Amino acid sequence: MGGTDAKDILGLQKTPLSLTQEKKSRPQKESHRKPDGISREVYALTGGVAPLMPSIDVTQLKRRPVADEKVAWKWLPFTNSARKDDLQLYHWVRVVNDVPPTGDYTFAKYNKSVEIVKYTDEEYENHLTDPVWTKEETDQLFELCERFDLRFTIIADRFPLSRTLEELKDRYYSVSRALLRARAQSPADVANHPLMKEPYDITWDRERKRALTMVLSQSRHQEKKDAEILAEAKRITEMRLAARRAEEPDMSANENVGLDRADGVGRSVSPSSHSQLPPTAVAPSTLTMADYASTLASLRMLHVYLRTYGLEQMVQAASSAVGLRTIKRVEQTLQDLGVNLKPKVPTKTVCDEHLELRKEILTLLNLQKQLQYKESEGSSHREGAYAAMPDTPKERVFATDPFSFGAERTIKKEPKRKGPGRQPDSPLPAHKRPRKMKATDL
């Protein structure tokens, strides 16, 4: 049953399809040909996707041997160059045209050994003598080190005398360093050698093993007690840090007050000069320093944070006491100077210099505001003093001449001219006369 029959049964209006929609063909699926050498089941499971691991080339699967090539497997003897006893063993080898393979054993390249320095009797007498060690004991030690590739646990087990593992290691590395220094033409030639840069410390090694033994031999009760002690120590440290952060803003405020007093003693400034300034023109207050200190303390509490995040927080703290207009002026000044608002390489030095530059720009803007306020205050004082003089004509005013470097010139004020055709004594027109009062207005 088609769509038209269903609409006829339901009583719906028939919408005949266009000819293009009726004859619209389904999109043909792209047919992928199965490559040779892969079974149909495997190709259906993978869907033609490349394998995760490299596989054999398809051309190698059905390769036929060369007609004149005769391959056979033979049981042949071989020797391993890694062995010193010339032991001869047998294994199966692929032989082509009755020609056996030549060369060393395949796995001989994995035989790696440590290069052990060796000394002569003369070098021992001149540089390696030790009152605790004899030459025979040192010879046995170096022989075991070469035999067991510096596996000192095995060397300590095989050493005939009662020597500890740390003593064996200390003797071997001390002799090696002495030989390197004796054979070098200058100390700079062996300065970068690992044995010279990081010498073996027997005291530190013993302490390390003792601490490790203590940790591994602890019971559950001791581990729980240590965890409680660490938690209590962490709590005490946090309390001390909080108390220190609370004291830092007070100390900075006291320092600022002391500096202001010292400046007041050194300079003769009127006592009402700062009190009359607008709040936006004064230097950053104690509240800004407190915000700055609190932001720095909160960042220290995080222990781990992005330096860009820390820079944003410090910028917000430094700009908390100024308005949005001042912040935009600071950003505009940075752009004029060619400085990015956010450093591209936010190292510690770059972030510190960026914050210092922002503070200097804020100080510059505050000084500009103070200068404008002082100039307006001075001009108002001059106008008031000039108006108080009795002989000063009222039609004269003072104006600053831009070409006289701060001098003032007098400008004569011309009287206002009356418009033509108007007489002050002429009667007012009827529509402009005052209205007479009536009895209802009372």
UniProtKB/TrEMBL annotation:
<dbReference type="GO" id="GO:0003677">
    <property type="term" value="F:DNA binding"/>
</dbReference>
<dbReference type="GO" id="GO:0000812">
    <property type="term" value="C:Swr1 complex"/>
</dbReference>
<feature type="region of interest" description="Disordered">
    <location>
        <begin position="374"/>
        <end position="442"/>
    </location>
</feature>
<feature type="compositionally biased region" description="Basic residues">
    <location>
        <begin position="430"/>
        <end position="442"/>
    </location>
</feature>
<dbReference type="InterPro" id="IPR001005">
    <property type="entry name" value="SANT/Myb"/>
</dbReference>
<feature type="compositionally biased region" description="Basic and acidic residues">
    <location>
        <begin position="374"/>
        <end position="384"/>
    </location>
</feature>
<dbReference type="Pfam" id="PF16282">
    <property type="entry name" value="SANT_DAMP1_like"/>
</dbReference>
<dbReference type="InterPro" id="IPR008468">
    <property type="entry name" value="DMAP1"/>
</dbReference>
<dbReference type="InterPro" id="IPR009057">
    <property type="entry name" value="Homeodomain-like_sf"/>
</dbReference>
<dbReference type="InterPro" id="IPR032563">
    <property type="entry name" value="DAMP1_SANT-like"/>
</dbReference>
<dbReference type="GO" id="GO:0006281">
    <property type="term" value="P:DNA repair"/>
</dbReference>
<dbReference type="GO" id="GO:0003714">
    <property type="term" value="F:transcription corepressor activity"/>
</dbReference>
<dbReference type="Pfam" id="PF05499">
    <property type="entry name" value="DMAP1"/>
</dbReference>
<dbReference type="GO" id="GO:0000122">
    <property type="term" value="P:negative regulation of transcription by RNA polymerase II"/>
</dbReference>
<dbReference type="GO" id="GO:0006338">
    <property type="term" value="P:chromatin remodeling"/>
</dbReference>
<protein>
    <recommendedName>
        <fullName>Myb-like domain-containing protein</fullName>
    </recommendedName>
</protein>
<feature type="compositionally biased region" description="Basic and acidic residues">
    <location>
        <begin position="21"/>
        <end position="38"/>
    </location>
</feature>
<keyword id="KW-0805">Transcription regulation</keyword>
<dbReference type="GO" id="GO:0035267">
    <property type="term" value="C:NuA4 histone acetyltransferase complex"/>
</dbReference>
<feature type="domain" description="Myb-like">
    <location>
        <begin position="129"/>
        <end position="178"/>
    </location>
</feature>
<keyword id="KW-0804">Transcription</keyword>
<dbReference type="InterPro" id="IPR027109">
    <property type="entry name" value="Swc4/Dmap1"/>
</dbReference>
<keyword id="KW-0539">Nucleus</keyword>
<keyword id="KW-0156">Chromatin regulator</keyword>
<feature type="region of interest" description="Disordered">
    <location>
        <begin position="1"/>
        <end position="38"/>
    </location>
</feature>
